[in-house]
Amino acid sequence: MGVPCVRVPVTEGEATRQRLAEAELVDDGYDITVEDGTLYVPVAEPSTVPDSFEVVEFDAPVREGQTMPADELDFAPSYERLGDLVIVDEDDPERAQRIADAIVASDLPVEGVLNRASKIKGTERVRDWEVLAGDTTEVLHREYGCAFELDLAEVYFSPRLATERHRVVEQVREGEQAFDMFAGVGPFVVPFATRGATCVGTDINEQAIEYLRRNAARNGVEDRVTAIAGDVREVAGDYEGWADRIVMNLPHSADEFLETAVALAGDDCTVHYYDIQPDTDPFGPGERAIRAAAEPTYEMSVETRRTVRSYAPGEHNVVIDARLRR
User: SAM-dependent methyltransferase TRM5/TYW2-type domain: from which residue to which, for each copy (predicted)?
Assistant: First the structure.
């Protein structure tokens, strides 16, 4: 059976491997292979590989002496890696435990296995977890050169959005003023700051803000990051007209915060607006909402419309990059 691999010319191999390794996308269970001047790098989460890379199926050999979870089972389990934790999503407790035992018995470098035990809930966007192996929900996750400490039981974090975050990060220029309205542990704010932006991150989850402060310090950018615990609508008054860039990653209800976003926007501001809509009209509702909030004070134009991922049957998580010019 083929293994998902990034295919690049050998001359681009090391740079590609390093970039994929920084995003924790390299699948250590298979060998990186060269064939006819082409390098094949096995990847663990092909759906999160940046669009600039070509992902193909390739018969990559299993790393010699390396045992994988599937070797312990009669099927290939589905799982995600987050730092040294593995996440599964199983409704059957017996099956979940079998998978966890197989993961621990394999040669994967893991410290624990968690099973999703609830949907995301509450204003703080957290979920319940069942610890199947190990003794913690805390983890240190590395993503495109930045390190993030977090506790999955206390904060919201999705490794599946790594590619989308990196797409936005690459747009940031030194000297920008960037505001993340729902900042979490800092996966936008911290890399923005590493590119020379001055950043403000707010979040109603106090634990997330504490991790944001720690992550800013861990990555050496605490002098460029202000972290504020609270509802952005109540704390944004000190930053009216301040932002060159705004992130609104609260896809179920970002429209309720557009008035605040417009108040934060400077004379020329890019807004990254995340939404969940049916595939019949994935971008229209968001565009109309942004335009209604921004005009006539601002002229609004759409620079990017992008589907981030499938959210549910017939629904997509999308992003609109909107530019507001006063």
Answer: 79-326
